[in-house]
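Task card 7
Instruction: Convert sequence to structure tokens.
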Amino acid sequence: MKSKIALGILLGAGMFASCKDPLSEMTKLAKEQQMTVDPNPLEIHGRGDKVDFKLSGKLPIKMMKKGTSYTLELYYVPGNIDNMADMDPNALTQGQRVGAYEAKGDEYVTKKEDVAVNKEFNMGYQDKFKEGGLFLKGIATKLGSKPKSKEFGPVRLKDKDGKFVKGIATTVLLVKSPVSGVNPTTSESPFASFDHNYSAPKDDVLEVGVNFERGSFMLSPNTGNNKAVMETITELFKETKVPAFEAQGTSSHSPEGTEAVNTGLAEKRAMALQMQFKTMLEKFKYKKDEIAEYKFNFSKKVMGETIPEFNDLVDASALSAGDKADAKSTLGGDGDFTEKELKLQKKSYYKALMDEVYPKMRYAKTGIKKPGVAKSVAEMSALTKQIRDGKAKGDALTEAEYLYAASQTSDLDERAEILMTAQKTYDTYKVNNNLGSTLLDITLFKKSNAKLDDAIKYLEAGMGKQETGEGAYNLAMAYSIKGDNAKMEEYLKKASNLGSTNPAVSKLINGAKGYLAIKDAQKRNDGKYREAVDFLNNAPQSNPNLFNKGLATLMQGINYDEAIANFNSASQKNPKDAITFYALAVAYARKGQEADAGKALKQAVELDNTLKGKAIKDVEFEKVKNGATFKDAIK
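Output:
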């Protein structure tokens, strides 16, 4: 909000071309001096501990006399100064000297251009300065061994519209911590949790295959690798309670013998393998009704269906290429299957078929999905209760399972119970942090601080195990809720330094960085507000982050429309946040849009009646305070 401030009543130049008393002439010419102050109204930035502004203008060159100097002294006078008149010697009694600018006449006696004044001033801020105004006093001094001085003023500074510079804007103090103004009805947690990193064990497919002697369906441990396979089946049911399954398998035979016999062999071999499984179930005391739940489905290969397998085994054998072709042609040709087998028996390579190919075709095999040790969320939750009741050991669940189970429930109390149980066995930084984060959720969403101190206790315990950006951020939010801003900022800085490898948490920390950048701003254009906007563009679009982005834009004094857009977005995130509407009213007031400012202020006051008194004294509304809509908002 820039404005030109004219000083005093401007008189024509050159009225006093000559005067025996140079000091009198200088003070008379002082009425021609013109100054501007930027910004108007004055305003605090960042931490609100000082006020910076710039004094610019010109001093008439005719004032600059040899052997003299002219000093501009600036004072800030607090309180209600509406009735203070220019040139009142008592005006500065309660004032605080801000600083001075001195021009020495000897440096300008040969120059023709007016003296350019361009000086930065700052003063410490106190609450009593919120109301008040700037005064300027000029001092003409004759230098030498016996210096003499004569004063001009004091005069009260006015803006280009003839209005006094009045009060100090404290809008930056509205800045929100990243948890302030979060809508507690959205169930969107503003706190940082660690990922559970739980990966459910995958089911393994156990391939079980047994071989049989020629023409037999008796399962012998001495055939092929049958002994090792049977031991595997035994171990499968011995190790753990295997849930019911439905196994898919195949059974087959070698081509020799009649078709009727071979078809029967395939059926019987399938039954033999199935009975081997049921024998193991009975051995390990599975109940009959349980055993009935284990189902086996076999594809029993009859004569013609074995040909593709026969061909593959022949190709893999040590037969010559010619013998391989002949064997496949013979069995795959026309005619009765038994007749084709008799032809093969007359071949010189038949013994090789009996040794290398046929034994591999006498089998029954099945694939069983062996369940992993994965537990359902319901099972994890039930097991947690058993652990809590002393009916199971704490390590019956892994740390990852506890964290996963906690993340899968929307019931905050249940989540806290799971993590409290976990913490007794796994006193790690992850469990402590996520427990503290959950207790903060309970604090925020249930609007009760009963568990706030416990949240801090667990979060500090987690940070004691390992310092993390997640833990530091959560502690900052906890102390924000507690009202300890010093601790909040301490941990926000730590979170900013520690960072996080979790993109979601990095965004949360960007919200903290945006807040800190606003707090570090010293003036409109020192880059800190722009830095804040950059961080907040990459932060969660929560009410406080959108609000702070609007505030950082507003404080730059450049793009009020963008600030208004951000405040409107923030109000949509939390329609019951009075401060958001108050800041929106300020933005409209800076644009001079009295009706919109009054409407937004009315919404703010309806949500928080104490803002009425704040608005009445807030210099931000100086432009619009006489409008009907504004008056209606504060009536």
